[in-house]
Amino acid sequence: MYIKQPQFRGIIQSIVFVKPKKPNSGNRRCVLIKKTIKAKCKEQTVFKLVSVRGNNNTNISIYNSALFEYKVYADIPGVKFRLKNTCPMINSRSKYGCKNIYNLYQKRYHVCSCMSCLPYLVPRDQLMNKVME
Q1: Beta pairing class for 43-51 and 81-85
Q2: From start to end of 79-127, where are the E strands?
Q3: C-alpha–C-alpha distance, residues 48 and 132, integer Å
Q4: From its phi and psi, is residue 26 left (phi > 0), alpha (psi between -120 and 50) or beta?
Q5: Span of the secretion signal (predicted)?
């Protein structure tokens, strides 16, 4: 399966256990995915085995959409991809790029749990001036 993408999305069809090659032992958990490739004139549906990292990945369920990336494992025959994210639709910020907006909001505005303060969002420096007076 030739894909010109660093990551691609597919649908999980089933969860299988694969035996590794000879010196290694223990079954490796893999998933069978369905990927539809759209060419110029036709669509091609391909089924591939994908490795799952870690032992306790509980977000895996059948017919979920998931994100995969190319990674060849030497001890698992026929597995050339690994599971990257089981929820690719979640809008998450980059670890390194932008700062958390909620934390900036908390620093700038007085945020408390009481309902009386919610309509009056005042910048923190103005709030401190009112407290000092």
Answers
A1: parallel
A2: 81-85
A3: 66
A4: left
A5: none
CATH architecture entry for 7-85: Beta Barrel (2.40)
pLDDT higher than threshold 80 for residue 74: yes
Q: What's the whole-model pTM score?
A: 0.56
Nearest to 49 by CA among 76, 24, 26: 76
| Residue 106, H or E segment | helix 101-108
92-124 tens-digit pLDDT:
555 666 555 555 555 555 445 444 444 455 555
Cα gap 69→103, rounded to integer Å: 32
Which residue in this structure is represented by tokens 């990945």?
Answer: 57
Tokens of 42: 């036709």
Q: How far is 86 from 119, CA to CA, in rounded Å?
A: 38
Q: How do the domains of the chain map onto residue ranges?
A: 7-85, 101-132
pLDDT in tens, 46-62: 788 888 877 655 567 88
